[in-house]
Amino acid sequence: MGLSELEECSLSLDGKLLRFMEQLESLEEKQAALNSLIEQGWFSTSKARYSMGNKQVSALQYASEIEPLVCVHTRTLDNGEVEFCTERVTQSTETGTNVKSIEEIGPQEEGVRRRNKPKNVVAEKKGNDEASSVAAPEVTPVKRSEQNPQQDPLRWFGILVPQALKQAQSSFKQVIELSAEIATLQTAVLNSREELKSCMKDKHILQKKTSAARVEQTVK
Amino acid sequence: MAGRGKLIAVIGDEDTCTGFLLGGVGELNKNRKPNFLVVEKDTSITEIEETFKSFLARNDIGIILINQFIAEMIRHAIDGHVQSIPAVLEIPSKEHPYDASKDSILRRAKGMFSADDFR
């Protein structure tokens, strides 16, 4: 009875140990990938600095208003592990509004054109009734001067930045995604470690019990 | 929107911070408090430690990235942090390559094979 319990405990311990080793291996692989990507990023930054100038691409050029373009979502799993996943704020929504603002120029110009013909207002109104009813919802004040706070950090360093800086940015974007994966793995490793420790203690107690039972049997 | 998720904080040398800010992790909040610290030659260990602790105390930070050579300076503070969130990741710096044997998490993982665990 005790022996089978011990066997079960040993088997689960083996399984947990294998899982722990796999997690450690995966963590090491991801760390290596992260390190090489960071190195690549630095290399590209240095190349950009070489073409832009020694004092370029430094902390002095950071914008006065900085908005995050990436965030991390955390989720605690049932077994106590925490999952980190990154979410990037895409620039596509911004380009979408830009396109819309260009389209809205039409109705605005129409408004100006109508102001020059005050005599034919009634006639024109009849003629353009359908068109204006369609265009009416589109006539909204366009906020042209509104600054985009979530501007691409590349712009901090200039309008026409070298390709190397773009490469550096893409390397660091990958590093950010990888760092979320590593953070997940780290919590998984620590969690597995705790499980292993408790399992080892259980096994130790069981071993003591079985050895005590054996001693009793031999004495009898 | 990025506001709903948590931020990634960075404590590192200028190149590391610049790189991650290029990647889009940077934030200056309403109180003009950044989520990054550029460590220079004259940055004191106290300042680094205070910044690290302030990042730990902020509930809008999910991951703290720190150069390993800077982590070495405040190792006691890093070892003292045992919560899962924020996760602390040690990364290499230009002059100091990553050494897994110094990593807080890996050292903790290695610790499970110590004699204490078998008692």
TrEMBL record, chain A:
<keyword id="KW-0458">Lysosome</keyword>
<protein>
    <recommendedName>
        <fullName>Vacuolar ATPase assembly protein VMA22</fullName>
    </recommendedName>
</protein>
<feature type="region of interest" description="Disordered">
    <location>
        <begin position="108"/>
        <end position="149"/>
    </location>
</feature>
<keyword id="KW-0967">Endosome</keyword>
<dbReference type="Pfam" id="PF21730">
    <property type="entry name" value="Vma22_CCDC115"/>
</dbReference>
<comment type="subunit">
    <text>Accessory component of the multisubunit proton-transporting vacuolar (V)-ATPase protein pump.</text>
</comment>
<dbReference type="InterPro" id="IPR040357">
    <property type="entry name" value="Vma22/CCDC115"/>
</dbReference>
<dbReference type="GO" id="GO:0005793">
    <property type="term" value="C:endoplasmic reticulum-Golgi intermediate compartment"/>
</dbReference>
<dbReference type="GO" id="GO:0030137">
    <property type="term" value="C:COPI-coated vesicle"/>
</dbReference>
<dbReference type="GO" id="GO:0005768">
    <property type="term" value="C:endosome"/>
</dbReference>
<dbReference type="GO" id="GO:0005764">
    <property type="term" value="C:lysosome"/>
</dbReference>
<keyword id="KW-0968">Cytoplasmic vesicle</keyword>
<dbReference type="GO" id="GO:0051082">
    <property type="term" value="F:unfolded protein binding"/>
</dbReference>
<keyword id="KW-0256">Endoplasmic reticulum</keyword>
<dbReference type="GO" id="GO:0070072">
    <property type="term" value="P:vacuolar proton-transporting V-type ATPase complex assembly"/>
</dbReference>
<keyword id="KW-0175">Coiled coil</keyword>
Automatic annotation (TrEMBL), chain B:
<keyword id="KW-0375">Hydrogen ion transport</keyword>
<protein>
    <recommendedName>
        <fullName>V-type proton ATPase subunit F</fullName>
    </recommendedName>
</protein>
<comment type="function">
    <text>Subunit of the V1 complex of vacuolar(H+)-ATPase (V-ATPase), a multisubunit enzyme composed of a peripheral complex (V1) that hydrolyzes ATP and a membrane integral complex (V0) that translocates protons. V-ATPase is responsible for acidifying and maintaining the pH of intracellular compartments and in some cell types, is targeted to the plasma membrane, where it is responsible for acidifying the extracellular environment.</text>
</comment>
<dbReference type="InterPro" id="IPR008218">
    <property type="entry name" value="ATPase_V1-cplx_f_g_su"/>
</dbReference>
<comment type="subunit">
    <text>V-ATPase is a heteromultimeric enzyme made up of two complexes: the ATP-hydrolytic V1 complex and the proton translocation V0 complex.</text>
</comment>
<dbReference type="GO" id="GO:0046961">
    <property type="term" value="F:proton-transporting ATPase activity, rotational mechanism"/>
</dbReference>
<dbReference type="InterPro" id="IPR005772">
    <property type="entry name" value="ATPase_V1-cplx_fsu_euk"/>
</dbReference>
<comment type="similarity">
    <text>Belongs to the V-ATPase F subunit family.</text>
</comment>
<dbReference type="InterPro" id="IPR036906">
    <property type="entry name" value="ATPase_V1_fsu_sf"/>
</dbReference>
<dbReference type="Pfam" id="PF01990">
    <property type="entry name" value="ATP-synt_F"/>
</dbReference>
<keyword id="KW-0406">Ion transport</keyword>
<dbReference type="GO" id="GO:0033180">
    <property type="term" value="C:proton-transporting V-type ATPase, V1 domain"/>
</dbReference>
<keyword id="KW-0813">Transport</keyword>
